[in-house]
Amino acid sequence: MEKLEFKFPSQALLAAAPPALCGVVGSGNLEILVRSGVDRQICEISVNTSARGFGETWRAVLATFAASQAVGGTSIAINDMGATPAVVSLRLAQALADYRGGAQ
User: Fold this and answer.
1) Residues 74, 34: Cα–Cα separation, whole Å
2) CATH architecture for residues 2-99
3) SS3 readout for the chain
4) Which residues contact 18 (CB under 8 A, 6 or more apart)?
5) pLDDT score for 102
């Protein structure tokens, strides 16, 4: 397993909410936990992945997410078992929608 840690500037999410869990760790999939973070202008993301050597790909996908969504003030944990960037983006959007109470 490889552990990656990222911090991205992002617009603040308007309101903190109870933690939201989305996805299931399994062959070719991942799970994402979104919870309240410390800094309202930063999104902290930790990734535990079985696919070693893809740090720059993770950085690109997660930077795009943090730039396109107001996720400042969140802490996101990702457990990955080989998901593609498209699946990562989909699960991030689903987890954020759950965290916001279903609002997109």
Assistant:
1) 7
2) 2-Layer Sandwich (3.30)
3) CEEEEEEEECCECCCCCCCEEEECCCCCCEEEEEEECCCCCEEEEEEEECCCCCHHHHHHHHHHHHHHCCCECEEEEEEECCCCHHHHHHHHHHHHHHHCCCCC
4) none
5) 64
Instruction: Tell me the per-residue pLDDT of 51-86, one tens digit each, with 9 for 90 and over.
Output: 899 999 999 999 999 999 999 999 999 999 989 999
pTM beyond 0.85: the answer is: yes
58 token code pair = 């993770």
The mean pLDDT of the chain is: 91
CA proximity to 18, closest of 94, 79, 74: 74
